[in-house]
Structure to design on (543 residues):
């Protein structure tokens, strides 16, 4: 019984991180029609920056202050996104999709090398945050309290993004632009600004995902590519462009993954791919996706 | 006083002279119908005036300002709005949001990212008022994609109206709806337009509608203006009436 609770918590922890990542990926696709191959690398960048800032500050400040530095990675990634969209992506919207895939893939390679250059091959961790919160007892097992914080952040992020997209004026503009860019601009909206904001928001979520994961799992080279594959599985299952799909997909992938790892670790990715393939066969647009 | 004036406006598509030296004057406050057979150049003319197309030559003056090269957004700011021949709404947004978008875009209130949609009383009130004027207030929560065809037409005009234009173009507002809905749409549109003292230019094929609601009728043929006059004058112009109504020419 206790082990079940533990596995559920593990799944929710992972789902929180995956949701942040996949929701950002979906948001960017939904608004701009771009599949951002560099999304996982932006997540890794968020992890590295937060780990680096925390390591740097750990000796100097009180642990409580360290928690305020947690979003540092997310903010740096947002700033990167606000530059990337107008400079690299905007000139390519009128080109075929291959160009967009190529440039975001190129960005992935550049970011991976930048991280290798700046932080080298040694894993970077932000464990002081993990240690500061201690552990909770789940029956005979112990569980890091920090992971519960990550789950809480995931829940807040899901609610926050939902409210942002469906309850604010920006959300109305975002949904309008994603449906018909020309109409939106005909109404006098500044579509370029909406694009920067949407891309920035997607990057913030990716960076936040990396930032909150790094106190419990060290930042390592290649983590971005690894997680990008899972994020794609999430959006294939949930439907690219749908926030609800990102949430449900993240939960499905996390629970299946945790379950499979428990019984037969080698099958982890195979089972996830099979689920994605099955969804594609039955509903090619994903569970919540709509035909474009 | 003329609100809009075109001067020798020309737009050719290859060998097709879609608009061929048109001098059109639209006076302040009138309800003008633009009629003619398919391909007569009506929609092209409206596209030129609303900046969806660039003319090959000629000029467009709005309130005596040359607007020939102003982009769409600036023409909207100047006070020119249009609804579309094919209903062009945001299907996944509610009727309320479709209109609200026009209201706050017009007000330039598009910067405050975190403003809750329902928190801005001025925008909410004005949006509800527009929906009420067009008789679709009870559909405010319905997604535009789920509205009946007649309601979509009304919402389409409501969105254009919410931009508070001085000059409103309506491209076939009653195409594809039942006769009963047609009368309702036109009654609503004409009462809103007249109450707001808005100048309206309507492209319409249904001559009953045209004769009933217009102050003036401009007949186009092969890119040029064939006739221009009051509904009575057009009716009495045997050749034009025959072309429009398909009746035999009385000699």
């Amino acid at each position: 019984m206790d082990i079940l609770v533990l596995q559920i918590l593990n799944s929710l922890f992972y789902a929180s991180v995956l949701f942040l990542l996949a929701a950002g990926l979906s948001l960017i696709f939904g608004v701009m029609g771009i599949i951002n191959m560099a999304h996982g690398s932006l997540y890794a960048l968020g992890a590295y920056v937060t780990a680096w800032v925390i390591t740097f500050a750990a000796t100097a400040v009180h642990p409580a202050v360290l928690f305020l530095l947690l979003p540092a990675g997310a903010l740096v990634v947002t700033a990167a996104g606000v530059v990337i969209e107008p400079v690299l992506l905007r000139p390519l919207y009128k080109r075929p999709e291959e160009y967009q895939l190529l440039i975001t893939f190129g960005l992935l390679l550049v970011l991976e090398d930048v991280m290798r250059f700046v932080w080298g091959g040694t894993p970077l961790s932000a464990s002081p945050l993990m240690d500061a919160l201690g552990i909770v007892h789940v029956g005979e097992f112990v569980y890091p309290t920090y992971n519960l914080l990550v789950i809480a952040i995931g829940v807040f992020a899901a609610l926050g993004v939902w409210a942002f997209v469906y309850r604010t004026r920006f959300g109305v503009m975002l949904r309008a632009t994603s449906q018909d860019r020309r109409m939106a601009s005909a109404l006098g909206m500044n579509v370029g600004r909406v694009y920067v904001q949407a891309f920035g928001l997607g990057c913030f979520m990716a960076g936040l995902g990396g930032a909150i994961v790094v106190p419990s799992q060290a930042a390592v080279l290649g983590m971005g590519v690894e997680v990008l594959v899972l994020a794609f599985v999430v959006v294939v299952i949930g439907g690219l462009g749908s926030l609800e799909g990102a949430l449900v997909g993240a939960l499905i992938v996390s629970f299946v993954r945790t379950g499979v790892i428990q019984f037969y670790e080698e099958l982890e990715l195979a089972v996830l791919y099979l689920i994605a393939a099955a969804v594609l066969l039955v509903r090619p647009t994903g569970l919540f996706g709509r035909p474009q | 006083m003329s609100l809009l004036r075109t001067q020798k406006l020309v737009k050719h598509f290859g060998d097709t002279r879609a608009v061929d030296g048109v001098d059109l004057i639209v006076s302040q406050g009138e309800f003008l119908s633009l009629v003619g057979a398919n391909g007569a150049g009506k929609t092209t003319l409206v596209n030129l005036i609303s900046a969806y197309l660039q003319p090959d030559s000629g000029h467009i003056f709005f309130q005596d300002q040359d607007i020939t090269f102003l982009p769409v957004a600036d023409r909207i700011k100047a006070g020119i709005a249009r609804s579309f021949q094919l209903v062009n709404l945001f299907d996944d947004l509610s009727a309320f949001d479709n209109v609200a978008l026009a209201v706050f875009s017009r007000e330039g209130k598009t910067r405050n990212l975190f403003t809750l949609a329902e928190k801005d009383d001025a925008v909410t009130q004005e949006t509800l008022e527009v929906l009420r004027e067009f008789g679709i207030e009870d559909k405010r929560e319905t997604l535009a994609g789920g509205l009946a065809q007649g309601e979509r037409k009304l919402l389409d005009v409501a969105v254009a109206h919410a931009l508070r234009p001085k000059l409103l173009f309506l491209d076939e507002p009653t195409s594809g709806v039942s006769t009963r809905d047609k009368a309702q749409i036109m009654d609503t549109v004409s009462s809103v337009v007249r109450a707001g003292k808005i100048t309206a230019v309507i492209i319409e094929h249904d001559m009953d509608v045209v004769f009933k609601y217009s102050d003036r009728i401009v007949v186009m043929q092969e890119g040029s203006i064939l006739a221009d006059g009051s509904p009575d004058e057009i009716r009495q112009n045997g050749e034009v009436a025959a072309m429009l109504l398909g009746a035999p020419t009385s000699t």
Remarks:
- Residues 17-221 of chain A form one domain.
- The mean pLDDT of chain A is 91.
- The first helix of chain A runs from residue 2 to 32.
